[in-house]
Amino acid sequence: MDVPDVGVNQTNAAQALFRRKADILILGASRANHSYNCKLIEDSLGLSAYNAGRDGQNMVYAAMVFYAYLERYTPKIVILDVSFSQVSGDWNSHLNEMNCFYGMSMPVDEIIDHISSFADRLKLHSNLYRYNNTWQWLLQAHLAKSQADLDGFRPMPVNESTNFKSVIKNDKFIADTLNVGYFNRIVKTCKEKNIKLILSYTPSLMIDKGNFQLWLKNFAKTHCLMLMDYADDSRFTNHPELFYDMTHLNSNGADLFTKDFLEKIFKK
């Protein structure tokens, strides 16, 4: 899909699925998309980077991007940011947003076919059905006067005042079989292709004290993966001025986080 990169969810997805090539691929949901400054990564490591995070998408989406990306390029490093809703199944219905890309990539088609009902698979062969709710962003992208130049990273603005306070969550986590299955597939493929896979949990003022954090640590340990866990890092949780809202860093917080993340992974 030949769509200009104008820095919105849909055009970021098109770039990640069909066009971009970079040595470092960042996967995840909105916390990934708004937290990893690719220019800082590129300047620090001398490697190209692309941030393919997308708001409100789960591990199945991450797999869709990952396998479509591998069709044209093999990254040296994959950073996979993992959050509660990506693995719990809360966002499974959001995958319908990917229907507009059906028929353009074998990995995308295979995953959509796998998660769709027989009736939905039949509907997907109708161009009219596939492009429901698509024309608006396609038109806006082609009419946009400027294009994004941050390699997928979308920084959030710095608020003039922040009255946020960190909140302890004790939500019970139940792993979703579909998402965990694709999570395992990504891990297996990275090992087979000698891709360095780094798991991360970016800073948030919604501090998870439930069983998800433990689940993620056990997953990383079982698969011998590096996990960069910022779940209750006081350098961030004690500084609401670094956040745009309760769950997303602002541009200042993202820069601080990216620099710290790079320092830590190359000390390990």
Question: Could you give a quick summary of the protein structure above?
Answer:
The protein is an alpha/beta fold and 268 residues long. The protein has helices at residues 9-18, 30-33, 38-45, 59-70, 84-88, 106-115, 118-123, 127-130, 135-143, 177-192, 212-222, 234-237, 251-265; strands at 24-27, 49-51, 77-81, 167-169, 196-201, 206-208, 226-229.
Question: Can you offer a commentary on this structure?
Answer:
The chain is of the alpha/beta class and 268 residues long. The protein has one domain (9-265): SGNH hydrolase (Rossmann fold, 3-Layer(aba) Sandwich). It has helices at residues 9-18, 30-33, 38-45, 59-70, 84-88, 106-115, 118-123, 127-130, 135-143, 177-192, 212-222, 234-237, 251-265; strands at residues 24-27, 49-51, 77-81, 167-169, 196-201, 206-208, 226-229. The strands form 2 sheets. The chain has a 5-stranded parallel β-sheet with strand order 2-1-3-5-7, sandwiched between helices. A two-stranded parallel sheet has the order 4-6. Helix 1 (9-18) packs across helix 4 (59-70), helix 4 (59-70) packs antiparallel against helix 6 (106-115) and helix 4 (59-70) runs parallel beside helix 10 (177-192). It is globular, with a radius of gyration of 18 Å.
